Amino acid sequence: MAAEPAVEASGLEKSFGSVNVLAGVDLTVPRGSRYALLGPNGAGKTTTVRILSALTRPDAGRAWVAGCDVVADRHRLRSRISLAGQYAALDGLATGEENLRMAGRLSGLGRGQARRRAAELLETFGLGGAARRRVAVIFLDEPTTGLDLPGRLVLWRIITELSDSGVTVFLTTQYLEEADQLADRIAVIDGGRVVAEGTPGELKRRAAAQRLELRLAGAGAFEQVALAAGDRVIHADRGGLIIGVATDGTAAQVRALLDELDPGRRAVAAFSVRSATLEDVFLALTGHAGQEARIGHPSGGPAHQAAHEKETSGV
Fold it and tell me: What CATH number belongs to 206-295?
């Protein structure tokens, strides 16, 4: 008999005034897994987490987390889960004591100093009973926002260790690399709906097994090839004069595409065949042009420099 999922949601809907934030979200998260909800600002990621952690009631639909109905059993549920928001990235990641010790280490304390300070804080605030309470499900809402690269790597390691110990980790992220690195399964959310779900590999195969990456000879050549490729474009970098087109990777198809897109053999300066990426998946599934400016790499590239706006109205 299959184990009960850690998280199960059916038909979740939520509006804030005239803004329809969730339009029927369905999710199933296996126990002990690392599950990522991937999408741009305003897609409904934070609202989904708030409903699943019993902070916001859905307008329609039902959800169960750790065996608890998120509305009817919300008080019991809160003893079984932990939530960390965007600007408290380590709050609730493990036991209370482990959380405080890790925060101390990241603040520059030595191992012994961090252990002693954690004990002092637990005693001061009367939280001795919570020091070693473990939770069944951890919700992390864009947990690496505001962290530098060393902090992100520490957090990635902690998330992996927690999952290995049997804790279910549900995280939201805008970072394609982060979802690819951490998640067993990924749900892509756009416009308040889950538009695709699967392992990173499955999602990449849905977009295209391979992509033909073309480096164009100039701005005019870029426009010419982009027009000729049409909706087959799965990656475009105007500044870098790069266009990626879906392909099966065979020599015959690559030759055919080059002949079709550059019949005069002057537009394409160079080409390569690469495996599809989650960026390709997102663009193929949602059709958001220019998504690179909003969904980037947590290692701190140009996309990461763009301002991260908090999803409005609790979205």
Answer: 3.30.70
